[in-house]
Specification:
The structure is a single chain. The chain has twelve helices and ten strands. It has helices at 38-48, 71-85, 94-103, 135-138, 144-156, 162-172, 176-184, 189-197, 207-223, 241-245, 247-256, 269-276; strands at 2-7, 11-18, 21-29, 60-65, 89-93, 108-113, 117-122, 127-129, 236-239, 261-265. By secondary structure, the chain is of the alpha/beta class. It folds into three domains: 2-98 and 269-276, Nucleotidyltransferase, domain 5; 103-136 and 214-265, ATPase, nucleotide binding domain (Nucleotidyltransferase, domain 5); 144-201, no CATH class. Helix 1 packs parallel to helix 2 (71-85), helix 3 (94-103) packs across helix 12 and helix 5 (144-156) packs across helix 8. It is globular. The two termini are 19 Å apart. 42% of the residues are buried.
Length: 280
């Protein structure tokens, strides 16, 4: 039996697999080593995962996580997982998890649009090229954290429509100072911004909202997808809450760039189960 974990900065999805059958399924908080220490990662795993995940030593733990492409950060997560599961562990990037989950053993462009954003060229087993995502300050175009950052900036500068800003403050009951604190005094600023961004999904009839999302998705394509040779000839697939929430707008932008999106899903996990159990 095998444990597979797939973690964004916001949440981690876990499955316990026997052959090709999922026998346990659970969620915990995101386990990004850029924001959590080894002790905090271990604590969250032990506190939030059901006891069924710790019944005995499993064959292997495969973990795909945000922040795990850095070797030093990778080791933090690996040591935490080994301590909790007492089982051989392989830690890989969330981007490789997205690629394997979306395309399994096929080749193409795999993209993440969730709390952050990322993309890669995948050959059916490994990533062969990646345009660096750069995080929500320098990059992460089209992501929840960037949509939230742009929208909140417009709200606080008085550039968003007045009725939309009022609806935002009525819903969240926060002040400008609360927002500033959530962004500048919090290690999880990207998650906070992403949470606020989903307010936009309630107002897709507002021209300002659709223009903002369209603009950020266009930036994602121009600064990421269009960097790959023959991008318009390759299978393209997306995973993430932002991709699924705004799928119609995403398809529109893709069409303007000559890209056919093969798949848009919320989770990579079904494909990862297939990949690690020998399916196709």
């Amino acid at each position: 039996m095998t444990v597979i974990g797939e973690s964004s900065s916001t949440r981690t999805e876990w499955v316990l697999v026997d052959g090709g059958t999922v026998v346990e399924h659970a969620f915990t908080v995101g386990l990004n080593p850029y924001f959590l220490s080894r002790r905090e990662i271990s604590h969250n795993i032990r506190l939030e995962l059901p006891e069924a995940f710790f019944k005995r030593r499993w064959n292997h733990v495969y973990f795909y996580g945000a922040g795990c492409s850095n070797p030093e950060k990778n080791k933090i997560v690996e040591s935490s997982l080994v301590a909790q599961f007492k089982t051989p562990v392989t830690v890989m990037s969330d981007l490789l998890g997205a690629a394997r989950g979306l395309l399994v053993h096929g080749s193409g462009l795999a993209c993440i649009l969730g709390t952050g954003s990322n993309s890669c060229l995948y050959d059916g087993q490994d990533i062969v090229r990646n345009v660096r995502p750069l995080g929500f300050i320098l990059g992460d175009e089209g992501s929840g954290s960037v949509l939230g950052r742009v929208f909140l900036g417009d709200v606080l500068k008085g550039l968003a429509p007045r009725e939309l800003s009022q609806a935002f403050f009525d819903k969240f009951r926060v002040t400008a100072d609360d927002i500033m604190d959530a962004v500048y005094s919090n290690a999880s600023a990207n998650r906070n911004l992403s949470t606020y961004s989903f307010f936009l999904s309630e107002h897709l009839d507002n021209d300002y909202v659709t223009a903002l999302i369209d603009r950020e998705f266009t930036r994602f394509f121009e600064r990421n997808i269009c960097q790959y040779d023959d991008y318009d000839q390759l299978p393209v697939a997306f995973v993430g809450a932002v991709a699924t929430t705004y799928s119609e707008l995403l398809l529109d932008v893709a069409g303007r760039h000559g890209v056919h999106i093969q798949k848009i899903v919320r989770s990579s996990m079904p494909g990862l189960v297939t990949y690690h159990t020998g399916g196709h």
